[in-house]
Specification:
This is Methyltransferase FkbM domain-containing protein. InterPro entries: FkbM_mtfrase, SAM-dependent_MTase, SAM-dependent_MTases_sf. It comes from Prymnesium parvum. Pfam families: Methyltransf_21. The radius of gyration is 18 Å and the shape is globular. About 40% of the residues are buried. It contains nine helices and ten strands. By secondary structure, it is of the alpha/beta class. It is about 25% helix and about 20% strand.
Length: about 290
């Protein structure tokens, strides 16, 4: 993925300046069981990273170990808002929570979660769970693995929407299964924004303000999810939203955009709404693009 700053001209300058595992699907609460006595997953978390559409967990690993992914597209965001040091990110004050809907990635992501927590990181992965604008369940479409080569195991086209880029079975339909959905806006409102931590507590070399970073790559579902976040007043409380838009601007996304009914110019309209959200709307929108686009 390639990083493009959108909507906020000052973002580039600010970023470059000196500055069985626990899952929602197997928890009675629906959000996992790593909770404090107050019942909040994120209590004590000064910095929060939400990986929405985690795929095989590359960005989670990047968040915790910048040395291995120094040139990753989110590196300037992580450095600016979380800090440069591995020790700081390992502390109890930095937390990550990821969602992935594709059931083919369950084994890989459970391994990633176990490895991260064994190293002292505070990470939770909810899989298979799709993010949405409502609680419930949905049909999730994915590629026919029998037609995929080994190097395509990421399954970039898997989505809640059946579109023409999916490899079809002999019957003409993409393979699919039912997965649970969570209302992402409500999750952020009730958990992330309600977390408690000591604002004055000295944390190593952490002089950075508390932060919330969200990477979102959910194959066409971003329109409904972000609209819901705006409606609940959640979006403006996030520091950075790094997003891959799946709209008509790129020919490769046209089939998915049509299936998901993404409105034309959705990205520009979202930028406009954020720009006119008032002084309390602090979110910075950063666009992530596929490599080579």
């Amino acid at each position: 993925m390639v990083l493009h700053q959108r909507g906020h001209p000052s973002l580039t300058h600010r970023l470059s300046s000196g500055s069985p595992p626990i899952t929602a699907s197997n928890s009675s609460s629906g959000y996992g069981s790593r909770r404090t006595t107050n019942g909040n997953l994120f209590d004590g978390c000064r910095h929060v990273f939400l990986d929405v559409g985690a795929n095989v967990g590359i960005n989670l690993r990047h968040y915790w170990d910048a040395r291995k992914y120094r040139w990753g597209p989110l590196q300037p965001v992580f450095d600016r808002y979380v800090g440069h040091t591995r020790a700081l990110r390992r502390s109890k004050h930095a937390c990550a929570y990821a969602f992935e809907a594709n059931p083919h990635h369950v084994r890989t992501l459970r391994k990633v979660e176990a490895e991260l927590n064994s190293e002292g990181f505070r990470a939770t992965i909810s899989v298979p769970t799709a993010v949405s604008d409502r609680e419930g369940s949905t049909t999730f479409f994915f590629d026919d693995w029998s037609k995929l080569q080994r190097d395509h195991y990421h399954e970039w086209s898997a989505s809640m929407f059946q579109h023409d880029d999916l490899h079809r079975t002999a019957s003409g339909w993409a393979k699919n299964t039912s997965v649970r959905t969570i209302d992402l806006a409500q999750f952020i409102l009730s958990q992330v924004l309600n977390r408690t931590f000591d604002h004055e507590e000295p944390v190593s070399d952490d002089t950075l303000k508390p932060s919330i970073i969200m990477k979102i790559d959910i194959e066409g579902a971003e329109f409904a999810v972000l609209s819901r976040m705006m409606a609940l007043g959640v979006l403006c409380h996030i520091d950075v939203v790094a997003i891959e838009f799946h709209d008509e601007r790129r020919k490769g996304f046209i089939p998915l955009a049509k299936a998901a009914q993404v409105p034309p110019n959705f990205a520009k309209n979202l930028e406009f709404i954020i720009a006119h959200g008032g002084k309390d709307c602090k979110v910075n929108l950063v666009e992530l693009s596929p490599v080579g686009s």
